[in-house]
User: Fold this.
Amino acid sequence: MLISKLVKGLLVLSLFSATSVFADDAGWMTKDTLTVGTEGTYPPFTYHDEQGKLTGYDVEVARAVAEKLGLKIEFKETAWNALLAGLNSGRFDTVVNQVTMNDERRKKYQSSLPYSYSGAALAVRSSLPNVRAVKDLKGLKGGLAFTSNFADLVRQNQAEVVLVEGGLGQEMALVAQGRVDFTLNDRLAVLYYQKKLKVDDKIQVFDLPEEGTVTAGFIVRKDDTEKLKKLNQALTELKKEGKLAAISKQFFGVDISEQ
Assistant:
């Protein structure tokens, strides 16, 4: 009798565990929409074109991933400083906005396989010819978002971070106007704004290879393991099919999906 009750108990526990696992997976996969948090103000990664359509490298990669998963997609445009907070609250399933991982973020989040590889670049006022690397920033003022990895790097080199809410375009404009001394950001984005704002004569840009390679992935909450598996499967297939390379070349002329 005791053995019979024990066996029944184990069967019930086994069925409950299996149901829970599939429910977690199905709970996401049976939704017909992948909800994505992104800025919409960070060209060429996420921005609005001349017709007002949301586009950019990150946006089109997210659309391709949703299509691969058989899902519709909904973008929720959010200021950079509130993106991860929105992920915490369940406002969206994932954040796709050139987010790189650091030690602090790894405590709460997971990142998918990389969909882009880049590096850091320093944009400096041309009137500061001796500033060419992060070691030269001591005592200067940099316009950045407080929560960016680059802001941490600036502070480590004893420079002041001036909060800029309007994104990299505003940061670059402030450098050109002489209201801040420099900004530090993704190389591709810095070069994009240097050209867009026509400030070649006012801003010098220096690559920072010593800072290593920067990768970006789809960011999910720490406990969203099943969701992360699905995103990684989609990205792997898109890379094999050459779709990520095609989207890269559309925006950059080169493939930034490979290191």
